[in-house]
Every structure is written in C-alpha cells, then in structure tokens.
Amino acid sequence: MNTPHRSRALLSGWGRTAPTAADVVHAVHPALVDEAMAAAVSDATGGRGRGLVARGLGRSYGDAAQNAGGVVLDATWLDAVHAVDLDVGRITVGAGVSLQTLMERFVPLGWFVPVTPGTRLVTVGGAIAADIHGKNHHVDGSFCSHVASMTLVTPTGTHTVTPVSDPDLFWATAGGMGLTGVITDATLQMIPVETSYLLVDTERAEDLDDVMAKMLTGDDAYRYSVAWIDCQATGRRLGRSVLTRGDHARLADLPDPLAGNPAKARAFVPRQRVRVPFTPPGGLLNPLTVGAANEFWFHKAPRHPQLRQPHHMTGFFHPLDGIGGWNRVYGPRGFLQYQFVVPDAEGETVRHVIERLAEVKLASFVNVLKRFGPGDPGPLSFPMPGWTLAVDLAVGHEDLDRVLDDLDELVLTAGGRIYLAKDSRLAPHTFHSMYPEVDRFLDVKAKVDPDGVLRSDLGRRIGLCSDADPLPRD
After folding, report:
1. How far apart are the two ends of the chain, measured CA to CA in Å?
2. 109, 141, 139, 104: which is closest to 121 by C-alpha?
C-alpha cells in the first residue's frame, strides 16, 4: 500500500534494460532510513520480503540500484550540507547530495570534487558504492581514497566508519554496490582550484599504438587524461583517437576578460543545451550514423597538437550532461556499457577488443580509453594499474551476447575485470573469477547483514545475495 513516503515504481538503470518493480521508500528524513531498515530486517527474519537496497540518481547503467519485488530506498532526499571547513576543503554532506551540487556550491569558493566520472549527476552515496573513478585516476586514485568517514546504516546497527576505525567495513563498502548498508552521510576531502576552467591539450593519434605510446610517456605530466577511440576504424587506422589532457587553470592562466573577473572565472553554471524529447522506435545509432559521427569527431580535432586551451569544467568533464535524456538515442531496448580494465602488461587485450567490435560492426560512438594508477584495497573496487576501455553498445545486435561473452574471456585471461557499476549481464562464475577477493567481501557482509537483508538485482545475478535463507559462513 502506498503512503506519503512509499510508492510502487518500475525502475531501471541508465541503460534502460531489464526494468523491475519495487516499493520505493523516499527517505525524506534520516529517521526513515532506520525505519525502512528495521522493517526489512523484520521481514527477513520472518521469512518475508525481498530485502532492501539504496538508490541515488539512477546512473548505474545496469541493475545495481534495482530490487525486484523488494524495497528500494530513494536516498536523494538526504541532500543536506552538514559541515564545511573552507580553510582545508573538508566537507560533510548527506549521501543524496549530487556531485553537480558540490560543484555549483564549492567551485566558486575554490574547491572541486576530488574525483568525477563522465557525469556529474551522481550522488555522494552512489560515488562511494561504486568507488567511482575519473580522468585523474593515474594521479588521484578513486573516490573513496578521498573519503574520511561515512555513516552507514546496516541491519545490525548504525556505524561511523573510517579507513582507520573499521578498514574491513570501509573498504567493503567502497565499490560494494550498496550491499553492506545505506550510506546516509560522508566527509570528503575536496581539492583546491582557482577557477572553473582547465588548460587543455588536444591532439590526434593515428592508431592504437600511437595513442597508447603518447599516454604512457606523457600522462604523468597531466592531472587529467582521456582518449576517445574510433572503434569502427580498421586496418592501419585501428584505434585512431583524439587524446585530451589537462590541468586546473589558475586565474593568471586565463585570457582577458576572465583573468580580470575572478567571480566569472570561478562560476559554475551547468547548462543543458538540448534534450532528446522521445525514444526513437529504432534508435538513432547504427554503423552508418556512428561511422559518420566518428569521422566528424576525429577530423574536428586539430591536425597538430593544440596546447593550453581554456575549457570550462562542464565541457571537459561532462559533455554528455549537456544533452538531456541522451540514453534514449539507443532506442526502446536500451543499451549497455562494457567497461573493463586489464593490467599494464596486457595492453594488447585492448586491441583485441577493438578488433572484435569492428569485425562484427557493433556501432559505438562513446568509447573512452584511460590509464589507471594503483587501486583501492576494496575487494570489489574496480580499478587496478593498467588500461581501461569503456564502450556503449545498443541492445539488439544478434551477436551482442556471444561477442561480449567472448570479450569476458579475453579480459579474464588477461587478469582483468568488468566494472560492476556499468554491468548488466556478467555471469556469476565469471564475476567470481574476476574478483578473487569476493569471499573477503562476503565475510564482511555476513557480519553486518547476517540475515541477508541487503539485496539487489545485481547482487542476485552475480551471487552476492539471494532470496534463500543465508548460509552460515566459516
């Protein structure tokens, strides 16, 4: 039955695949988190219900924030700013605060989020649950490396968790996809900036060897680095790219009139320039349209390196946020993002993946290559030192499942893994092989959730939880 704080809803991830229905509890007050958790525990111990998982802004591509037939806690209401120390850039905020809100409020005051993914429409709680990474991983690591503490509501109680006070629970929560508890607030260390601009170097790379060599030899000189890859180019052009790298601009680095107007130079005003108003019946992306877009994007980049050009943060970090509802262009069946990481020595795996995608003509325009530095100690945290490639693929290609299963084997053989925040199809045996420390995660989960209350569609699919009675662990 619906109440003012509860409603039935059909939920999906950003990829718009496999929607499922759940009872959504809107956490308009932190006390409702405790109430929802207590009710879920009571149901579980009584052999009823299908558990609970928290949800932020729904930007996980797959089924991580879905819970078919169970409870989904809408944490976006937990959006208070609790404490700010502008002298050192340390803030305590509710888990429902978005990265966009942090940028809007704190960039004009001289502080930027330590890590941002390709969208700013992510909550702090979601950023912790996915241990998100960005273009600066090779320098700054993942999001949870900058989290000083968090409040975590679990089935066994509420905990203030830090990397020192309870490292096992802290790092199990980092990348744990919401299956250790509901984060209600967190304390973050921001990074200092003078302006809302970056100085950006842009250059073309003629093939995959070229772009990887440039990144290996040059990325350490930049805080941020990313390469767009043309995954339809073949032959000697295979992996041709546009490499974009940059650092935060100081006020003195900017041209007039920005340099003479500090308030304007620090302004952060996100704009949505266009919106996709409906879902095209057949989608807009196919080998023909993507091929044309790839040609345009590659040749739009300067033939010779373009150095130290000022770019506003919104365009550099989050270009797709300027297109409202861009996930609709893939058509009514939706899309998935396939993102993997392989160790430094296995860079050839990136080539094999691109070759396979080009061979079967799986059209993808959003393809990004990055370098990772050392990973966090979380058993389910995704990054490891090496190469990560992410590609968006429309659902519907007759060979999609078979091709991605083959790519899973390539990644697994190379000692790599798939990013759970993007995943919507990984098999449980493959997941367990890719994340060899999963038992360490399950041990921590069993301590804070002995009755198996914390569940999600992702968790069920890959074997992190089930609707059966929890099994005792040694």
Report:
1. 40
2. 104
By the 10 Å C-beta count (0-12 exposed, 13-18 middle, 19+ buried), 273 is classed as exposed
Entry pTM: 0.96
How far, in Å, CA of 131 to CA of 349, rounded? Answer: 24
CA distance 229 to 214: 14
Residue 200 token pair: 């950006």
Which has the closest alpha carbon to 37: 168, 152, 125, 186? 152
CB atoms within 10 A of CB 48: 9
Structure tokens, 437: 């420390």
Give the largest Cα separation in the chain, rounded: 68
Tokens matching residue 379: 């058993």
The token duo for 48 is: 């009823």
pLDDT band at residue 144 using 50, 70 and 90 as cut-offs: very high
Q: Which of 62, 66, 13, 46 is nearest to 418 (CA)?
A: 62
Distance, in Å, from the CA atom of 64 to the CA atom of 108, rounded to the nearest integer, reads 33
Q: What is the pLDDT of residue 4?
A: 67
DSSP codes, 316-334? HH-GGGGEETGGGGG-TT-
Examine the pLDDT at 399 and tell me if it is beyond 80: yes
Count Cβ atoms below 10 Å from residue 461 Cβ, excluding itself: 20
Tell me how far the alpha carbon of residue 237 is from its chain's centroid.
Answer: 29
Element housing 97 (H / E): none
The answer to whether residues 73 and 471 touch, using CB atoms and an 8 Å cutoff, is no
Q: Residue 357 is encoded by which pair of tokens? A: 């995608």
Report how far residue 136's alpha carbon sits from residue 147's, in angstroms, rounded to the nearest whole number: 16
Q: pLDDT tens digit string along 409-445?
A: 999 999 999 999 999 999 999 999 999 999 999 999 9
User: Is 113's pLDDT higher than 80?
Assistant: yes
Contact, 403 vs 326, CB < 8 A? no
Amino acid residing at 29: H
**Counting beta carbons within 10 angstroms of the beta carbon of residue 191, is it exposed (0 to 12), middle (13 to 18) or buried (19 or more)?**
middle
Determine the Cα–Cα distance for residues 166 and 23; give it in Å rounded to an integer.
Answer: 32
Identity of the amino acid at 314: T
CA 108 to chain centre: 25
- Cα atoms in the 13 Å half-sphere on the side-chain side of 353: 33
